[in-house]
Amino acid sequence: MEFIKTGRGGRKLLYNEYTYNVDTKINDTTYWRCEKRKVCKGRIITTNATLPESSSDHSHPPDSAHVSVLKALDDMKTRAKQIEEVTSSVIDKTIDEMPLSICGSLPKRETLGRMVSTEFCPLERISLEISCINHGHVNNKPWLSFPI
Ligand SMILES: [Zn+2]
Predict the structure, then answer these.
(1) What is the 84 CA–ligand 1 centroid distance (Å)?
(2) Whole-angstrom distance, CA of residue 81 vs CA of residue 44
(3) 51 and 79 part of one domain
(4) Which residues form the domain of 85?
């Protein structure tokens, strides 16, 4: 069981290669719903951070690539906060450490750049955006041009 932070201060739960969003939280008990809530009734209940209290079946197979991408993006944001590096370097390292098989599932570099730059203060963000633009022009080739 693993928790990752989402953009707006929320959390996701990764368990058995399924992804869950918080449904409700009552005292120490958190009720999670499968990320594919429109098509799936998969749920998990947790009261501590080790093992789920209970879980229900999913209507679809687990998606290990999706889970790997979420983990990689979480690592990337952590790295962006901790280390004083330019965005492109943070992104490059994230990509380097990622199995090739899931690189195709990553968001576009622009999107990654935005995700990283929101972790910095505004002044840094402006210069990072400029460096991202320059980076794109210098190489003059689209970086990971896979669909999200
Ligand atoms: Zn599900």
Answers:
(1) 38
(2) 30
(3) no
(4) 64-139
